[in-house]
Task: inverse folding
């Protein structure tokens, strides 16, 4: 199995977003492509260690380091696919009244505005990472979480529903570091609520439907 064929870079049509420039999208998509390549490369190198069906003692330090890095690169790839997948240039500011996501947010937080306040507040937390609204597949409940870098804070078995990148590369060409709040407002002008509806109702929402 060729390592460069494990994962393919997905394409996204995101030019013309509100408050997030095409230049930012180009930069961001090329960073994403780097995560796909790195994930494939790491998996390929780990597969080489496993070729003889054992990890020898002298191989263990390199094997361990590559495996640790896999969590960073792999989550970097997947979270970006969710992020780009929940944006669209033809967005509405809020989910419509029939939205399955809206019903889930209200059931989980009481009101949509309370859910949104929580999600935005997570996104404004200091640090490098992501705000992610997850769904617990067992209960259907939504909860918002901070993910440091790409791999610390993901909840095992929960499904990402809305993913917002708040690394500075996501907005630095359009806003200053202190203007993260303006970027978050712009993000909410471009959310594809229909994708969220599919993610909360799909039997396999972990599939990155877009
Ligand atoms: Fe990013």
Result:
């Amino acid at each position: 199995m060729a390592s460069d064929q494990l994962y393919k870079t997905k394409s996204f049509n995101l030019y013309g977003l509100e408050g997030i420039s095409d230049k930012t999208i180009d930069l961001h998509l090329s960073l994403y492509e780097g995560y796909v390549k790195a994930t494939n490369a790491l998996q390929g190198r780990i597969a080489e260690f496993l070729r003889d069906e054992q990890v020898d003692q002298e191989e263990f330090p390199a094997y361990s380091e590559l495996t640790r890095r896999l969590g960073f690169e792999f989550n970097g790839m997947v979270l970006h696919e969710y992020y780009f997948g929940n944006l669209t240039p033809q967005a509405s500011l809020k989910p419509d009244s029939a939205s399955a996501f809206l019903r889930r947010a209200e059931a989980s937080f009481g009101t949509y505005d309370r859910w949104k306040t929580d999600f935005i507040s997570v996104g404004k937390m200091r640090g490098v990472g992501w705000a992610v609204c997850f769904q617990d597949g067992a209960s259907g409940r939504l909860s918002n979480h901070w993910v440091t870098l790409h791999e610390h804070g993901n909840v095992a078995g929960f499904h990402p529903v809305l993913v917002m990148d708040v690394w500075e590369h996501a907005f630095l060409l359009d806003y200053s570091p202190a203007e993260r709040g303006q970027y978050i407002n712009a993000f909410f002008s471009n959310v594809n609520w229909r994708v969220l509806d599919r993610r909360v109702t799909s039997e396999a929402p972990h599939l990155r439907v877009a």
